[in-house]
């Protein structure tokens, strides 16, 4: 075996370590920028820790390698190791380091170490390695310049759209809908101008955060853009550990009850709060984009992971503890998890074993993880709590109009997805049965339909969505329980005017109930519906209400009064209610339109 070829470079940058880390650790983007070809990626399950087999073209050769999980320390260094099966080299080790410079800016170090398979190939490998290092240097400098000027990032050989006719048709149709025209233009311009990798997986919440606009507003227009032919809607099954898509499906009806993540080597059940994320991509008629795979890992894909390291069989890996106190977790491939408390006190160096319970270490210390496994694995240190930018199925299903416009987006009839929390609203039109007897079917039916217009309009204005109507009753769902209370109170006020203006309106009124809790999202007769005890309690609270009243939990009434969503004078009575089918009594408040 020939001696290793090592090439090192150093780039002085004007940008901060944090900004450079954010961009350069997006290895899919970086690989595109340096001119690498897309990869053919397949999974493997060897004992040496590699998880993926990759084949591509490089320097005129067809090359194939086994890729290990990336190793990194947040905003300090990351490493990629590859063992080659085809091509002129036996292995490639790439390391990027990041360090702050005195007086501002950062220094990015690049180290490439390649091992030729045979000695006489060393000259060719050295030539190719220097070219690769130079391409990385140019890319780092281009990124740094863009960041320093707050300009758009450099575009890796973006192909202009073949035709803009599809885009302009979608723009025109969207402007005819309720979406703000300026937001329509911004989104359409993004589809026209953005890089392919930005468009291949559009996450509406992440894009809204980057633009500094309301998340729900952009999610709503993205859903409208599907109907207008601008976007395709996809559902990604997200691993609860690495937070990366383990599977992509085109419809909720294709979702299965369980999924697996090959990288983390775990199986998991699905719930709509964590495991299903809605993403979007332009339709081919609007813009054809390069959807090739350019990487399978990288720190940017898992920002909640602060450190990741290889863990040898029966070996050890030492990880730097975070400098910020808090709750963290050590995760070993295969599902073993060790809670980690980082604080101002405790040992500065500890050893952790799977199964020995929670560990405590001083901030800035070190944690040595010991493996009892007979194969190589990887271990990661990750934040337990972090802000998610995923538009989950729970939130998407609560967007007004989703059930109406996406009636095909329903689950399999035999599948129920858990929702950790949803606010359910029930309304009932009082004395409606007597109305049919007193004024006749036609007049009573007209009154019922007119009252739906009042109720459903207010539901949508407050961010709720219709689940179903049951006779003259309405079931709706809200993301926010305070919004549900505000909507209910507006309904009671609006209905007083409705009763005065509509023929026979004075004969009836509304009874409302709101309750928040866990539920299951199910396919009921081809539409999305909720099932479980939360549904039962919300319906029972509505039944507790008298004409012109809302009944909610007493604690929710307190929160609503404190938040200004409910005048204190509107709370007429508080009492403990025993509800049919509910084991324990519930403290409730009776609310009227003050």
Written overview of the protein:
With 594 residues, the chain is α+β, with helices and mostly antiparallel strands. The chain folds into 4 domains: 5-149, Alpha-D-Glucose-1,6-Bisphosphate, Chain A, domain 4 (2-Layer Sandwich), CATH 3.30.530.20; 165-294, Orthogonal Bundle (Arc Repressor Mutant, subunit A), CATH 1.10.10; 300-383, no CATH class; 407-592, Alpha-Beta Plaits (2-Layer Sandwich), CATH 3.30.70.1230. The strands form 5 sheets. Strands 1, 2, 3, 4, 5, 6, 7, 8, 14, 16, 17, 19 and 21 form a 13-stranded mixed beta sheet that branches. Strands 22, 23, 24, 25, 26, 27, 28 and 29 form an 8-stranded mixed beta sheet that branches. A 3-stranded antiparallel beta sheet has the order 10-9-13. The longest helix has 28 residues, at 122-149. The N and C termini lie far apart (86 Å).
Blueprint of the fold:
Blueprint: E1 5-13, H1 17-24, H2 27-33, E2 40-43, E3 52-58, E4 61-67, E5 71-73, E6 77-86, E7 89-100, E8 106-116, H3 122-149, H4 165-175, H5 181-193, H6 196-199, H7 204-211, H8 215-227, E9 231-238, E10 245-249, E11 258-261, E12 266-269, E13 276-282, E14 305-311, E15 316-320, E16 326-332, E17 336-343, E18 349-353, E19 359-362, E20 366-370, E21 377-383, H9 393-397, H10 402-405, E22 416-429, H11 432-439, H12 441-461, E23 465-470, E24 473-478, H13 481-501, E25 510-524, E26 527-531, H14 533-544, E27 549-553, H15 554-563, E28 571-577, E29 586-592
Parallel strand pairs: 17-19, 18-20, 25-27
Antiparallel strand pairs: 1-8, 2-3, 3-4, 4-6, 5-6, 5-14, 6-7, 7-8, 9-10, 9-13, 11-12, 14-21, 15-20, 16-17, 16-21, 22-24, 22-25, 23-24, 25-26, 27-29, 28-29
Helix pairs in contact: 1-3, 4-5, 7-8, 11-12, 12-13, 13-15
